[in-house]
Inverse folding.
């Protein structure tokens, strides 16, 4: 009796190992290619905060910084895609953006003088109207 149980366990173990080997080799054949889409973008914006009452410019973004609305005139905009599919059309840039990040960085943006050049480096999800600021450069200080 004992020998029959051990033989049955051994046969089941060998069959299980063979099945595992066969499935591991066929695994990639069962999967399909998932198209790569952008999961993160690095955005570099350079421009200045527009003074109140100034005439409208052609490329103005409304930045919401700590609940305060700022009109930001974009002079240079660069978007770097972290992961993306080739030939995929870029989505339209949002006109109103909520800026999040460290308090000292947000304070630098909110404290920028009118017509002072501001350079922001931020991260966002594609098409999102929310950016997470990594660095702020004000020139001249």
């Amino acid at each position: 009796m004992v020998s029959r149980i051990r033989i049955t366990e051994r046969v089941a173990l060998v069959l299980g190992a063979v099945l595992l080997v066969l499935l591991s080799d066929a695994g990639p054949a069962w999967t399909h290619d998932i198209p790569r889409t952008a999961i993160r973008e690095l955005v570099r914006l350079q421009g200045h905060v527009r003074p109140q009452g100034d005439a409208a410019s052609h490329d103005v973004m409304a930045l919401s910084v700590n609940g305060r609305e700022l009109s930001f005139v974009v002079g240079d905009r660069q978007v770097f895609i972290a992961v993306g599919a080739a030939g995929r059309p870029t989505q339209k840039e949002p006109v109103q953006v909520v800026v999040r990040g460290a308090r000292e960085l947000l304070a630098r943006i909110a404290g920028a003088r009118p017509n002072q050049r501001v350079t922001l480096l931020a991260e966002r999800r594609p098409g999102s109207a929310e950016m997470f600021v990594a660095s702020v450069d004000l020139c001249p200080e």
